[in-house]
Design a protein that fits this description.
heterodimer; A: 119 residues; mainly beta; seven-stranded mixed β-sheet; B: 114 residues; Immunoglobulin-like; six-stranded mixed β-sheet; five-stranded antiparallel β-sheet; 58% strand
Chain lengths: 119, 114
């Protein structure tokens, strides 16, 4: 059973270009979270998606950032017109189910991350 | 808004010594997680703590949860060099549409010396 997959693992963009980060959740997982880790900092929540729905995007910058999780295919985090401050590691996590059940079914499994460098 | 604070942020230990990392969180949380991150790598799940008084142990690491004090601890026993890494705790928002969203602490960078 493959884990959470992210690609590319490393991405270099020049200022003003677009960055597209992909995340394939674990098999059977329909909940996806994106987190950003700036250098020397902890992870910060960006967005939570279920298939075809954005549930919570409270951590995502209002401009230039968007996320989707289509019915078929991976979840995509898109950053338009990148700036140097977007340089970070972007992690995707997936979980099996969400609910008021006190069990490890809600546990999030993290992908290897995409390290974005903006020149 | 849920806030999570860890201390210390930097921990330099000698091999063989014991130490504890503390994780405080500000509001009710259903679950508390501990992760390990090696430089340039992803997060490795260490422990999931689900209830008050929960204690879990794996090798030289032991984690506990006190939901009344809103405190979790990660205790390191007889440290070895292989434990050098950054350790994060994360609390889970309870309720609402963000159920399951993790709020992370700042991380504790642990270095174990011979």
């Amino acid at each position: 059973n493959a884990g959470v997959m992210q690609n590319p693992r490393h991405l270099v963009r020049r200022r003003g270009q677009e960055a597209r980060l992909r995340c394939s959740p674990m098999k059977g997982h329909s909940h996806v979270y994106w987190y950003r880790q700036l250098p020397e900092e902890g992870l910060k929540f960006m967005v939570y998606l279920q298939k075809e729905n954005i549930i919570d995007e409270s951590g995502m910058p209002k401009e230039r950032f968007s996320a989707e999780f289509p019915k078929e295919g991976p979840s995509i985090l898109r950053i338009q017109q990148v700036v140097r401050g977007d340089s970070a590691a972007y992690f995707c996590a997936s979980s099996l189910r969400i609910g008021r059940i006190r069990s490890s079914y809600n546990e999030q499994f993290f992908g290897p991350g995409t390290r974005l460098t903006v020149l | 808004e849920l806030k999570v604070e860890q201390n210390p942020l930097f921990l330099s230990m000698q091999e063989g010594k014991n130490y504890t990392i503390y994780c405080n969180y500000s509001t009710t949380s259903d679950r508390l997680y501990w992760y390990r991150q090696d430089p340039g790598k992803s997060l490795e799940s260490l422990f999931v703590l689900l209830s008050n008084g929960a204690v879990k142990q794996e090798g030289r690491l032991m984690a506990s949860l006190d939901t009344k004090a809103r405190l979790s601890t990660l205790h390191i026993t007889a440290a070895v060099h292989d434990l050098s890494a950054t350790y994060f705790c994360a609390a889970c928002n309870a309720g609402g549409t963000s159920y399951g969203k993790l709020t992370f602490g700042q991380g504790t960078i642990l270095t174990v010396h011979p």
